[in-house]
Amino acid sequence: MGRGDVLVIDDRGFDALLGALAARGFTLRGPVVRDGAIVPGPVANVDDLPRGWRDEQAPGDYRLSHGDDPRYFTWAVGPGSWKAEVFPPTQELWRARVENGERVVLREPQVRPAPVAVVGARPCELVGLQVLDRVLAGGSDPDPRYSEGRRSMFVVAVECGAPAATCFCTSMGTGPAAGEGVDGAGFDLALTELLDEGGHRF
Fold it and tell me: CB atoms < 10 A from the CB of 171, how many?
């Protein structure tokens, strides 16, 4: 396949996509149900994704419900963020050791985590990552860890088909379709989840 090509896949094809990314050394992260919300987390296959889950969002209100819907992405963006996948909130920056009772030696760890594949990023989240790119990877003094993590990140976007009353697409200059952000696409592969007389497919 080349850039811009379109392909239709079913659940097995989607699962094969996740397997192919894992086989290429990516650590898979996707939406998972945890602590009463849909948030980013580790995934191994499609069974880990929030199939059949829906959310209800309003100012000051967030709740989940589960049904027989075979789709994985019938919910709006929740309280989590993909930022932590490339810029963890806790990191070891350096260690200090005292040698010979007086000399302090500083050492920076050589950390090269496995590249991350984000599965299920929404268009508004892509724009959020682009803002982080400008802040943490742009300018005269980019953060090396964030920059490396973003360079190696593979992003599978999923078009938004279930916006909530609390969504902020318009204020971010984007919309329900990936690629509408202010700085371009921001993804490697975009999926549109469909369920109609043709069946469930991407």
Answer: 8
